[in-house]
Amino acid sequence: MEIQQLKVFLAVAEELHFGRAAQRLHMAQPPVSRMVRQLESDVGTDLFVRSTRSVQLTAAGVALMASAKDILAATDRAKALALAAGRGEVGVVKLAYAGASTHVLVGVLAREVRKAHPGIEMRLNSQDFALPALARVLRGDVDVSLGRWDFVPAGVKARIIVEEHLVMAVPASHRLALRGEIHMEELAGEPFVALPAHEGSVLADRLRRLSLGVGFDPDIVQRAPDSWTAMALVGAEVGCSLTVSSVAENVTDPHVRFLRVLDETLPIYLRMAWRGDSENPALPPVLALAEQVWPS
């Protein structure tokens, strides 16, 4: 059983006509007929019922059709992998990301890598917060990280993927829920839900800057382990929560409303970071593709 025989068989099986199959394959009809007869001889049974008026698949032909498609698809994948290996486009790239919103961006990149570089495997690692993701790049545990950092250390290269704006998540029952925008001073005395105030937390920094800038300390009544939990607590009317615009775009809880914060503060950027001295040969093709998927 040869690959060309399977290609000819599939063409005839799909067209149910030897002449049309020959045209589709850019072959003369006699070689098509000979290949099908040879394949039937190899498998030991008829694959088609032929008459002067029609061509129909036998039960054996129907059974072979699915397997033939799988074999040809596997052959195509093997060729693609071999070509990728010849270009050096094989290996593993580990990517860590943080936040309730970055999973959509990561999915887009992973899908495009599979299409363009089938020899490269993307291993995705979700982190609750951005700093641990950056630390993993520094240690060499992962090749790339996505996160919101105000600064990146020496030896790490980074570029901006998205500039985001701050929004305040409030319960749908909140007195200001129908507003599209808000000033921070309007929330003085309100209970807040916040993420853990670890060093380098961008949202914790902005909440502190904004609230102190208008003369109050935020009353943090509960800390959430991640953005998804924070939004659930807002929906449960525990308090308000400062977050970023991409979270608002990805959370669909009908019990939560998002209001743009109008107060001026430092910008927030979602960045992509990697080690400048990485020796992973699979990383440059992924970085190049990321530039196309997420243009600066």
Automatic annotation (TrEMBL):
Q: What is this protein called?
A: LysR family transcriptional regulator
- Domain HTH lysR-type: from-to ranges: 1-58
So what family is this one in?
Belongs to the LysR transcriptional regulatory family.
Q: Which UniProt keywords apply?
A: DNA-binding, Transcription, Transcription regulation
**Gene Ontology CC terms:** protein-DNA complex
Keyword Endoplasmic reticulum assigned: no
Q: Which Pfam families match?
A: HTH_1 (PF00126), LysR_substrate (PF03466)
Provide the GO MF annotations for this entry.
DNA binding; DNA-binding transcription factor activity
Residues crossing the lipid bilayer are: none
* InterPro entries given in the database record: LysR_HTH_N, LysR_subst-bd, WH-like_DNA-bd_sf, WH_DNA-bd_sf
CDD domains in the record, alphabetically? PBP2_LTTR_aromatics_like
Origin organism of this chain?
Arthrobacter terricola
| Domain of life of the organism encoding this protein | Bacteria
